[in-house]
Amino acid sequence: MQYHLNGFKPGNLQIPDAARIPAALPPITDLPTEVDVLIVGCGPAGLTMARQMAEFADIKTSIVDLKPGPMLFGQADGISCRTQEILEAFNCSEILAKETYQLYKNAFWEPDTKQPQNIRRKHKVDDARLGLSEFVHGVVNQSRLHDLLLEGMENSVTHLVPHYNRRLLTLDTEHSLYNDLSAYPITASFERTDAEQPGKVETMRARFVIGCDGGKSVVRKQLSISMEGDSANKSWGVMDILAVTDFPDIRIKSFIQSRDNGAVMIVPREGGYLVRLYVELDLLEADQRACNLDLGVDDIIAKAKRIMTPYTLDVKEVAWWSIYEVGQRVAERFDDTPAGNPQELTPRAFIAGDAGHTHSPKGGWGLNTSLPDTFNLGWKIAAVLQGKAHSRLLSTYGPERRKVAQMLIAADRKMSALVATRPSAKVAESGTKTNTADIEKFIARQNGFIAGTSIEYNPSFICTGFEHQHLATGFKIGQRFHSAKAARLADGCPVHLGHLNKADGRWRIFIFGDEECPTDTASAANQLVEFLAHSKSSPIRRYTPDGADIDAVIDVCAVFQQDDLSLQDLGPLLWPAKGIYALRDYEKVFYPLAHEDIYQLRGIDRSNGCMVIVRPDQHIANILPLAASDELGEFFAGFMLA
Amino acid sequence: MQYHLNGFKPGNLQIPDAARIPAALPPITDLPTEVDVLIVGCGPAGLTMARQMAEFADIKTSIVDLKPGPMLFGQADGISCRTQEILEAFNCSEILAKETYQLYKNAFWEPDTKQPQNIRRKHKVDDARLGLSEFVHGVVNQSRLHDLLLEGMENSVTHLVPHYNRRLLTLDTEHSLYNDLSAYPITASFERTDAEQPGKVETMRARFVIGCDGGKSVVRKQLSISMEGDSANKSWGVMDILAVTDFPDIRIKSFIQSRDNGAVMIVPREGGYLVRLYVELDLLEADQRACNLDLGVDDIIAKAKRIMTPYTLDVKEVAWWSIYEVGQRVAERFDDTPAGNPQELTPRAFIAGDAGHTHSPKGGWGLNTSLPDTFNLGWKIAAVLQGKAHSRLLSTYGPERRKVAQMLIAADRKMSALVATRPSAKVAESGTKTNTADIEKFIARQNGFIAGTSIEYNPSFICTGFEHQHLATGFKIGQRFHSAKAARLADGCPVHLGHLNKADGRWRIFIFGDEECPTDTASAANQLVEFLAHSKSSPIRRYTPDGADIDAVIDVCAVFQQDDLSLQDLGPLLWPAKGIYALRDYEKVFYPLAHEDIYQLRGIDRSNGCMVIVRPDQHIANILPLAASDELGEFFAGFMLA
Lengths: 642, 642
Ligand SMILES: Cc1cc2nc3c(=O)[nH]c(=O)nc-3n(C[C@H](O)[C@H](O)[C@H](O)COP(=O)(O)OP(=O)(O)OC[C@H]3O[C@@H](n4cnc5c(N)ncnc54)[C@H](O)[C@@H]3O)c2cc1C
Ligand SMILES: Cc1cc2nc3c(=O)[nH]c(=O)nc-3n(C[C@H](O)[C@H](O)[C@H](O)COP(=O)(O)OP(=O)(O)OC[C@H]3O[C@@H](n4cnc5c(N)ncnc54)[C@H](O)[C@@H]3O)c2cc1C
Fold this sequence. Notes:
2 copies of one chain form a homodimer.
Chain A: E1 34-40, H1 44-53, E2 61-64, E3 78-79, H2 81-89, H3 93-99, E4 101-102, E5 105-111, E6 119-126, E7 138-139, H4 142-154, E8 166-173, E9 186-192, E10 201-211, H5 218-222, E11 227-229, E12 234-245, E13 253-257, E14 263-268, E15 275-283, H6 297-307, E16 313-325, E17 329-331, E18 349-351, E19 357-358, H7 366-385, H8 397-419, H9 425-430, H10 437-451, E20 485-488, E21 494-496, E22 507-512, H11 524-534, H12 539-543, E23 554-559, E24 577-578, E25 583-584, E26 589-591, H13 598-601, E27 610-614, E28 620-624, H14 629-637
Parallel strand pairs in A: 1-2, 1-10, 5-13, 10-18, 22-23, 23-26
Antiparallel strand pairs in A: 3-7, 4-7, 5-6, 8-9, 9-10, 11-17, 12-15, 12-16, 13-14, 14-15, 17-19, 20-21, 20-26, 22-27, 24-25, 27-28
The complex binds flavin-adenine dinucleotide (2 copies).
């Protein structure tokens, strides 16, 4: 579908341009005075946190933002493969896949050797990320991702909607209550930002607070968490435009480096007409700030035109623009426990997203790192609040996501230098850098990081079993479950196994059978299923509440190499009776597809099989041999509460 | 996703079971007194008509139904490949694809030769329709299809919503006004069916009326159109149930024939728990009606249990059930002109869907034939109302769709006999028919008909060029454009060309280039593009209104075998400037994918190339050599108005 031919129009892209009008601003309703979870900020991090909490009827969540309503314009636009996988966990990937402009090529432009005042295409290559995920990297207005998360919240069992027009002012924390999970140790104060009752102050008590309030996070400041890293001395302009140009690669992601005027990065956008340009502006003096330079969009356009010589660029409409400085900073800690946490305080306040890491937007990593931050945190807080898991689970959030933030700023430091023709004063003195080959090499090398698919959490009690990695070399412990298809035994339907990992707080055990027939009672698979179903030390028996469905806490699926099995013969764990009617669930057992064999694709040991244990955030927690039922029990006992 | 575990809940399946509640009944608003198009009935036929009309801001449409609001339960559930292709034309196929239960297998069950009172699986085969379309045959509650069409109407530029609680009583037709297109020759009267103003009569004058009011169509009766065909003497029960069973193929489409008790057909349904059973009931006496037999759902369940012996069937909830008689009838004509139409009256009233053809529901053909009926009619009425086409276009509807209806009732007659163990009194006397092999053969043979993909309209002035069929053997003239992918020149993105054929009333010319480079001015492709862009006899120049975008009436796309072309060199028809800003459209030119070559897949003559002309309903109207610009002009002159 094409959009925005006759001007950019924000809103639901499922509605054609001519009929699309932005939704009315939501009404202002009273803040609750006491909540389990307070989320500050309706960006990707906050909304992902809220989207996840919304699934739990027994958790009271409130999400606030100082803005008057949902975002309409600008900011991030790149939607990585991993972000789309997470949206699939929220059951809404297909709309985003449909609306995003998918990137299949990269082009590299340098000064023409014959006429170096002109640019010339060096070459065009396939996007390096193809094949890393079942999803393709795409670009769309960040607001559409917000919309889908908001819609999911509203359609959930809690019908959660944000409280807009609320600016967080202060957080009062009462550390003596921190280890009492039933307490509300944090008091937040807000002021109204609307015209009706401007400045009116409200307060709310919370059991947990998540600061998703962006780069200038008030939560971070209130928790006295400092930022570490470089300050900026380089500015860029970014603009979403409707333009007429004879530049041939305007619909391809292009890196342009001119000899005399700087660099441009082109990101073609959803709908076939809109395009984003990142334009290199000048170096800043040590004490200069871009916002004080009094530059406007006309300056950005003029600069872009010079860089793109000999091509024309006739800008017809600017949908959104901004000027930013490049700098890379990461928070010293991601929660409110002091370094080392000598008193073993349970963290009760967290920061996520841009509140914890700021950097340049060029890699398209801001949104795509912020959203997984809270996708990591959400299920942990839910499990602790619901009494399903020990609060020590919460201490894994900081290390896991701060590692990613550090990789992010390292990558961004590198990338920012590569795409600029004058990355620093030092280079500027010695002339211009116009080498796009190093950009290309960097992109190829950082492939999995850019796609978000190679993010790997450090070993911990929820990331273990490395000694068994060889049993399934394609499911990397600590990384996300890399989906592959298998056929469902009950009906032959090919299913992406990764799409079973929905964001419902459940753990999953994927059993990959060995060569023995699992109906043979002597087989390892059969004995494992027996253990899970009946043993007193089975984590399923231990952690599933009485009366709940057998898969309510831990969901067991199996892939068997034999394709002539009958569900009936596999026992009630794999063909469970569920719900008020004890209806059978037919969607737990699979066999490999002939032409896309999951054993081969994911390096699963055919003779030994294995168990792959997947966290509620789709990351692989553990790999175990089929016979390792004791270890399985011990693994869950490390953090689950019976 | 799974739905309905704890009981069937109608409504939007994007909302999880626990949060889903049916939408409130829509408010009652006044009927307009004068409309361009009056549609009677909110079934698949009526809604498809309305969905299409809703796209046109200059056409005033009203759709009415006697029911108080949108459908919630029951009726059809099979969504054929072709129906999904049509939904893609309405830009909403992905939600249906996501919600439908996709069928990959068929199973056949007969009396066990050793214990013939029991049934036994004969065999299980792959569904024969795989590969006929880029969509897979699926099943979902008919109401979800209604919802998507209603949503599209409401989101369109006309924001069309139905008028519920209106029963059509009479149609007054004024034949003397029929050839005056500006006149309103039909007056309809309605009575209110709600409790507020029951029986209140309203009238409306219309330029065109479409009777989509089902098997007992009042429109049909008011137009004195009679039904031809068999009456029924056989009854079946159908029920959507949540049940526990040990029947192994409950999640596979299964045909069961028992020796003593009749036949069952199983259709597994969306969400993994729901299942539909068609259950053969007894033969009716000549003057018996099923509705007078006083049978209830308990009788259907009891019968199903007997047929499925030795398996158990424990029905926990019946979501919907019905008993119907088998009979096949088709209307003698589909519009209100008399046979032969000696006065050359312009048809002003039409019937579509079940109003024109009734038959058994077992083939899943009712919905899947009703919806394409009005998909055929909608664009024709729009073109005539907008003054774009001659009213003779309207006379093609009846012959094109009545042919399909006749194939439909022939197929249904055959299928109904095959799936029953006692299809008629004759067979009943001589014992039972328990041969599923003939069902399997029939399904395999009727493959394309069942998928809806082989429907082929008769030769006419909008279905012609058979002498050039050899230029593209895989695009059958009269059949729908069978989509295949090609890479977009501007960005390398693989695109399903068929999905360009949106339901916007536009014609499309697909140019498939020959071996010559299209930038070579001597090449046939270049000359064709020149002709289309500049010649006075170019249909694009003739029929596109001044000031409209160049592709507003006829959209030209091209596939060239050369993949190193530049859009800039191909001329402004294939890289057109559009809209208020004269932005360039980069989405008109393609090249074949290396591994899915459209030339090979669709049998396109590589050395000669061709033009494939596609109607607004995605059916292929004509195939012409690249040099046949005169014929192209003549083709459009046959019905278009300058
Ligand atoms: C101007 C701008 C331009 C950007 N351009 C790009 C780009 O070109 N490409 C790219 O990839 N990324 C870009 N980004 C980055 C990207 O948008 C962020 O990385 C991403 O949105 C971070 O998500 P977040 O949820 O952590 O925070 P944010 O999206 O920043 O959301 C924070 C939210 O918190 C709210 N908030 C802040 N303070 C308070 C308070 N005290 N009380 C209540 N609410 C508060 C804000 O209103 C905001 O809605 C841009 C960001 C900004 C701000
Ligand atoms: C009870 C029943 C069970 C069915 N079961 C199956 C099945 O199991 N499998 C299958 O494939 N197909 C089944 N079908 C058939 C399938 O539903 C139809 O083929 C399909 O819905 C036809 O679409 P339509 O739009 O032509 O008519 P319909 O869907 O019948 O819609 C007609 C509409 O017109 C309205 N209407 C009727 N008269 C008037 C009037 N005078 N004024 C105003 N409005 C009026 C009705 O309320 C209705 O909404 C069943 C149909 C019925 C009625």
